[in-house]
Amino acid sequence: MSLKGKTLFITGASRGIGLAIALRAARDGANIAIAAKTETPHPKLAGTIYTAAEEIAQAGGQALPLVVDVRDEAQVKTAIERAVAAFGGLDIVVNNASAVSRTPLVETDTRRFDLMHQINTRGTFLVSKYAIPHLARSGNPHILMNSPPLDMQEKWFAGSTAYSIAKYGMSLIVLGLAGELRAQGIAVNALWPRTTIATAAIKNLLGGERVMRMSRTPDIMADAAYLIFQKPARSFTGHFLIDDSFLAGEGETDFEKYHAVPGAALAPTFFVPDFPPPPPGVTVSGSRWEY
User: Fold this and answer.
1) What are the strands, taking DSSP E only, across the chain?
2) For 142, which DSSP code?
3) 189-217 tens-digit pLDDT
4) Burial 46-58 (b: 16+ CB within 10 A, else e)
5) 57: part of which helix (H) or strand (E)?
6) pLDDT-derived band at 288, boundaries 50, 70, 90
7) Which of 21, 56, 50 is nearest to 218 (CA)?
């Protein structure tokens, strides 16, 4: 299958994983609605909705840059309606936008708690809610969350309670919506990276240059998302997928190409369950699978 002519609505698509997913679809000639807040250049964050639109066009896709704060219900509703009007429908929604602050509960201020829940959980709720009526008219509709498997262990909450609740909130929406929408043939799945991904969040908030060098590029998430979108929506739903395990199941064997620094050790990300283990040949530093 090809995504040529398909319309994707991607939150947080001005940079990072969201942009990588957009560019992978654009290579097929897809239509991309870029739903993000960055309209003007940010001193610490590369890319705006307009630079993303230029990259998408250069890759072969059609782009619609939309200034959207997913916390604002009216903005979300209007943006989805504009995307449908511009491209004639909606086929795929990617809930990628997130806020992150991994701090112990007593060190997490209320404003930061609210921000993470409003963007991660509530934003995913709103985007999905207003997209569903349009997705129902697509031939192979998908909703994909950038969120983790529901592996409820103390270690995933201690030290980052507020953030963990907000990210697991996105995954709980996957669990609920997969059941609600199965009869309509709308697939709802989650995708999560095994390792850290070289994005602005890692560089600025979660590890700096050292962890950036130990990360994979966003392309691994983009390639996995692309293959998810090829799956029949009526039967492939309710899955919580880890990027490299899913790709390995689809026949991928070369994971070295995704290293941000060739040959560098890989840093594990959080929320990844012990099973399934990494694909053959993949070593994650500091994990039980290191050998």
Assistant:
1) 7-11, 31-36, 62-67, 92-95, 142-146, 187-192, 240-242
2) E
3) 999 999 999 987 777 766 678 888 999 99
4) ebbbebbbebbee
5) helix 49-59
6) low
7) 21
Confidence of residue 112 (pLDDT cuts 50, 70, 90): very high
- CA dist 272 and 147 (Å) reads 11
C-alpha angle 145-19-284 in degrees, rounded to nearest 5: 65
**Catalytic-role residue among 163, 168, 226, 291:** 163
User: Which contacts qualify for 106-112: CB closer than 8 Å, 24 or more apart?
Assistant: 108/161, 108/162, 112/162
Q: Mean per-residue pLDDT for 9-37?
A: 97
Backbone angles phi, psi at 217, to 5 degrees: -80, 160
- Active site annotation includes 168: no
- pLDDT for res 269: 94
Buried b (16+ CB within 10 A) or exposed e, 197-228: bbbebbbeebbeeebbebbbbbbbbbbbbbbb
Residue with tokens 């560098």: 264
CA distances, 207 to each of 152, 199, 202 (Å): 24, 11, 6
Calpha distance 277→176 (Å, rounded)? 27
How far apart (Å, rounded) are the C-alpha atoms in residues 43 and 201? 14
Distance, in Å, from the CA atom of 143 to the CA atom of 150, rounded to the nearest integer, reads: 17
Cα–Cα–Cα angle for 251, 24, 163, rounded to 5 degrees = 90
User: Is the dihedral angle over the CA atoms 23, 130, 233, 147 positive or is it negative?
Assistant: positive
At 252-276, the pLDDT tens digits run 999 999 999 999 999 999 999 988 8
Q: Average pLDDT, stretch 154-182? A: 98
Distance CA 51, CA 291 (A): 42
Q: 138 phi and psi, to 5 degrees?
A: -85, 155
The mean pLDDT value of the chain amounts to 94
Q: Look at residue 9 in the predicted model and tell me its pLDDT.
A: 98
Long-range pairs, 280-289, Cβ under 8 A, ≥24 = 280/248, 281/253, 281/255, 282/194, 282/244, 282/255, 284/194, 284/195, 285/214
